[in-house]
Amino acid sequence: xxxxxxxxxxxxxxxxxxxxxxxxxxxxxxxxxxxxxxxxxxxxxxxxxxxxxxxxxxxxxxxxxxxxxxxxxxxxxxxxxxxxxxxxxxxxxxxxxxxxxxxxxxxxxxxxxxxxxxxxxxxxxxxxxxxxxxxxxxxxx
Length: 141
Fold this sequence. Notes:
Elements: E1 4-7, E2 10-13, E3 15-20, H1 36-50, E4 54-59, H2 64-69, H3 71-80, E5 87-90, E6 93-97, H4 103-110
Parallel strand pairs: 3-4
Antiparallel strand pairs: 1-2, 3-5, 5-6
């Protein structure tokens, strides 16, 4: 089932646009350290797409034209600076700024039923390191 909204006598698919701050990538898994919030958010956007919501994502470092050509984004950046990023627009209206929402909040914004995301757990306790060739007694010495 695709998410649709009834506007002006016609059905239209909801569109969520995400305007990210300047980063090397939107997934959060590049660079010297992984940002778990960005990785979670990227997964949540994929989930939202699977629910029929059209999702567009723009990175300030790579897609400046998307920021300057959108009047809502341009005005918000001019008045608040880059600290307002990320910006989330739903069908062109600003719905969130300055933070990445959790999946539950995304579901509410897009009017889809919330489903918890995957939970990652460690299956076994870490094993201690084994040193090969450590000093000690061997065989009958």
